[in-house]
Amino acid sequence: MNKVINGRNTNNAKAKGLFILQVIIGVTPVLLLILFVWLELYRQPISATVIIAMILMCNVAYMLLARRYSVLNSGLRGEKQLYRTVRRLSGNNIIFRNLPVRYKRGRSELDLLLISHKGVIIIEVKNHSGTITGSWRADKWYQKKYYRDGKTSSVEMDNPIKQMRRQRDIVKSILSSAGEDVWIDSVLFFSSPNAKLRLTLRENDYVRSSSGELMHFLESYDSGTVISRSRMEKIAEIMKAAKAD
After folding, report:
1. Residues in contact with 136: Cβ distance below 8 Å, sequence separation at least 6, in sequence order
2. What single DSSP character describes residue 243?
3. If both were cysteines, with which of 76, 149, 178, 199 could 238 make a disulfide (CB 3.0 to 4.6 Å apart)?
4. What phi and psi values does residue 182 have, to the nearest 5 degrees?
5. Distances from the Cα of 11 to the Cαs of 44, 76, 115, 244, in angstroms?
6. Per-residue pLDDT of the chain (245 residues; tens, 9 = 90+)
């Protein structure tokens, strides 16, 4: 049976906070409009201008909050799908979820860290849809979406391959400083079925775009070294002890 160690996902609290703010700001224009009519503020030019300006500001704030909430919620859905996929793995694996790590000046948060008899794997999930283009050496990748009315939108993102390289270096440093020399791999998982990947990658840049592809990668993965159960537990204890606050 897999052993799961859950970390605190700060995005959950952020998403809840944004949702509450959306509700408050969404209701405020209605209340202002009621006061506007009830108190006959339309008869007072200055008061009327202030109320109308406040209503417009609330509408703009609501749209900005809704956009931010959508991004956070999309990421959370991707993380849940990743966990649902990985927990189906057979064997006695150790799975860390939302693991914050830090070594000296390096700091990051791992979506998922898998410790198995076959090796140690960092998994980063992105729930982006549309066409994703980029190169392993570029600083930025691009997400392009196409809409039914013919319009398109393009969003820039940090290169996930470089992000995972930093994560691998941090985990490697943490384990090495504790006397554990173990090979670490990383895989990038695009969880949305609507993602089309146009990436220029190296042979050891592992990217998977469906749960089936990810499962096949993890089931067939072999680092070339068998890790004993006691060593798996030791690695897990080192990572728990080094967890960033």
Report:
1. 159, 161, 199, 200, 201, 202, 205
2. B
3. 178
4. -135, 145
5. 44, 7, 24, 16
6. 889 998 877 777 788 888 899 899 989 988 888 888 888 877 888 888 888 899 899 999 999 988 888 888 888 888 999 999 999 998 899 999 999 998 888 888 999 999 999 999 999 999 998 999 999 999 999 999 887 777 888 889 999 999 999 999 999 999 999 999 999 999 999 999 989 999 999 999 999 999 999 999 999 999 888 999 999 999 999 999 887 66
User: Which residues share a beta bridge with 146?
Assistant: 152
What is the C-alpha end-to-end distance of the chain, expressed in Å? 28
User: 103 and 242 in contact (C-beta within 8 Å)?
Assistant: yes
Q: Whole-prediction pTM value?
A: 0.84
Token look-up 């895989």 returns 187
Q: What is the DSSP letter of 149?
A: T
To the nearest 10°, report the CA torsion of 126, 132, 134, 136: 30
Please tell me the distance from the alpha carbon of residue 82 to that of residue 33, in angstroms, as a whole number: 45
Note every long-range contact of 203-211, with CB atoms under 8 Å and residues 24 or more positions apart, other chains counting. 205/136, 205/161, 211/81, 211/84, 211/85
The Cα diameter of the chain in Å comes to 81
